[in-house]
Amino acid sequence: MLKLNITYSLYIKELPSMNEIRVDKLTGRQVIIATNRSNRPIHSNHKLRISSDTDMPVHDIKCPFCKGNEEETPIEIYRTGKDHWKVRVVKNKYPTIVEDGESIKGYHYVVIETLEHNTKLYQYDVEKWRDIFTAYKYTVEKCFEDKDMAFIQIFKNYGVKGGASIEHPHSQIIALNFTPTSRTSKSSGCLVCEEINSELSFKERVIFDNEHYIVYSPYGSYVQNQIRIAWRKHSSSIEDVFNSENITRLSDLMAKVFSMIFHSLGDIALNICYYIEKNNDSLSHFYIDIFPREGFFAGFEMSTQVFINVTSPEEAANKFRQAANYVHDRQEEL
């Protein structure tokens, strides 16, 4: 069982209105924290929450990811279990990048996370997360067998507003033969280590932590209620991140984090992004970003690349701490 430290000012009465410019240390993205804009009227029927599981069938005969439709997916490279499988990894039928490209090439895989069509993210238990991370490990190692691959991105789009085109629970892995400029650091030291030390010192943005991981709302959160999970060990190597011991730790942590998110925000559309590196050097450090998709990127953001966040990270962390405390107490009772 993962022991958590949730001792950081559990209840802040009311935070003052905030209007200031910040920069996310790890990406360099600028964000305006404008909490007064959370009160503006929004006339929209756009759906932020996911359909309830009662609205979705356990099995959809039209879904290519459901059991019985395995032949509708491209080549399978990995599976946990046999007929009653738990996780499958297949090539993406509509890849972002192809293996035999001339100027750019790479791999695009889909990780089908569950047999059931209607399983929700907050319902994933530790065993489910362990199966998923084991599938990630296999796929990442397979991608890097190609020496031309320089970069890999693991991500999950959850819900329509999170970019998911298929409801069935799945995530994706893309490997590239180049490194995106946004992932190229000009720093002389590890920015993740610096941010961890800063957040632990300030405390108010830390949601919870233990000896292995820290979960927090980053100072420069450019998405409302953004959560960052950073490994306290300075490493980003596949061997370290996906060794059996760390997979168990991480699986336990993720089950708690998404239970916390559900109790705070409901079953909300979101993105999960995992940052690992091919080369484990002094600048490489494993972390995860979770982006709830509550707000909208509009004209100002698209034209200036300056983001607007209507919920301060301090307020978000306080809200999540209360939810984490509730989840922790419930688990202690069971």
TrEMBL record:
<feature type="binding site">
    <location>
        <position position="117"/>
    </location>
    <ligand>
        <name>Zn(2+)</name>
    </ligand>
</feature>
<feature type="domain" description="Galactose-1-phosphate uridyl transferase N-terminal">
    <location>
        <begin position="19"/>
        <end position="180"/>
    </location>
</feature>
<dbReference type="InterPro" id="IPR053177">
    <property type="entry name" value="ADP-glucose_phosphorylase"/>
</dbReference>
<keyword id="KW-0548">Nucleotidyltransferase</keyword>
<keyword id="KW-0119">Carbohydrate metabolism</keyword>
<keyword id="KW-0862">Zinc</keyword>
<dbReference type="InterPro" id="IPR001937">
    <property type="entry name" value="GalP_UDPtransf1"/>
</dbReference>
<dbReference type="GO" id="GO:0006012">
    <property type="term" value="P:galactose metabolic process"/>
</dbReference>
<dbReference type="GO" id="GO:0008270">
    <property type="term" value="F:zinc ion binding"/>
</dbReference>
<dbReference type="InterPro" id="IPR005849">
    <property type="entry name" value="GalP_Utransf_N"/>
</dbReference>
<dbReference type="InterPro" id="IPR036265">
    <property type="entry name" value="HIT-like_sf"/>
</dbReference>
<protein>
    <recommendedName>
        <fullName>Galactose-1-phosphate uridyl transferase N-terminal domain-containing protein</fullName>
    </recommendedName>
</protein>
<dbReference type="Pfam" id="PF01087">
    <property type="entry name" value="GalP_UDP_transf"/>
</dbReference>
<feature type="binding site">
    <location>
        <position position="168"/>
    </location>
    <ligand>
        <name>Zn(2+)</name>
    </ligand>
</feature>
<feature type="active site" description="Tele-UMP-histidine intermediate">
    <location>
        <position position="170"/>
    </location>
</feature>
<feature type="binding site">
    <location>
        <position position="66"/>
    </location>
    <ligand>
        <name>Zn(2+)</name>
    </ligand>
</feature>
<dbReference type="GO" id="GO:0008108">
    <property type="term" value="F:UDP-glucose:hexose-1-phosphate uridylyltransferase activity"/>
</dbReference>
<feature type="binding site">
    <location>
        <position position="63"/>
    </location>
    <ligand>
        <name>Zn(2+)</name>
    </ligand>
</feature>
<keyword id="KW-0479">Metal-binding</keyword>
<keyword id="KW-0808">Transferase</keyword>
